[in-house]
Amino acid sequence: MNIRTYLNKSIALFIIILFGVVSCVQKEVVQPQREPARIALVLGGGAARGFAHIGVLKILESNGIPIHMIVGTSAGSFVGSLYAYGLNAYQIQKLSLDIQRSDIADFTIPDNGFIKGDLLEEYVNRMLRNTTMEKLRIPFYATATELPNGKETVFGTGNTGKAVRASCSIPGVFNPAMIGNKMYVDGGVVSPVPVDAAKRLGADVVIAVDISSDLDTTKPSGTIETILQAINIMCSRISVAQLSRADIVIRPLVGHIGSADFDRRNDAIIEGEKAALQALPKIREIVEQLRRQGRLPQ
CA-to-CA distance for 194 and 141, rounded, in angstroms? Predict the structure, then answer.
């Protein structure tokens, strides 16, 4: 074999080996996994209209829509805490139809409010078997407003019932809630539908439920109803900016239900179902897109 033939064969062998190595390396390249998506359900405030949240939960649950985080204000924090604990939507519906005013409203001589709030806190903790926020099945956050500075506070650890009480402490109706040495009132004062809080907490997709934009068409018949209606008007105005940053906004038509009308809770649930069904195609579209991207399990 002459030198030229030897060199040609050596070069050919080198090329074969080189391509073999490259081929092996290419087979071993692993595409980086994309971060799993987190879908947040944001439940707004609205007193007795908050029963509409249960109807929304029923539709999302029955259609397999994943929820990785719940952020609630006022009535939304009450319903959200029960769902985050692990009660399904139908169990919460049964609780809601059985609950009486006397279970959660401890009326007192008006001083800084008509209702103390102890019973509400105790009811939530009893239903949740005293489970703290950080141990709930679904990550749960409740928003409240700190007094006197008006700062939005988002509770995510500690006593669940106390956080819900703070979030539900409607000014003039409930006594302000004391946590530590700080005083809190309803989160709706500054954040009626806490979309921005959900995004700060890492939500990739926000499904917001707004029960304040359909303004109350009933005439208030007492002091509490007048306060609730006035606050609902305020909430409907200041929630607009945050709602524009949600991916989906569900708006149950509950304007015909008074904010203090507990007797129409079933009507509110039905309106929640209707509104969620209307939004369902868009929600499914987002979920399917995330699944195609590998950011949600199939």
Answer: 10
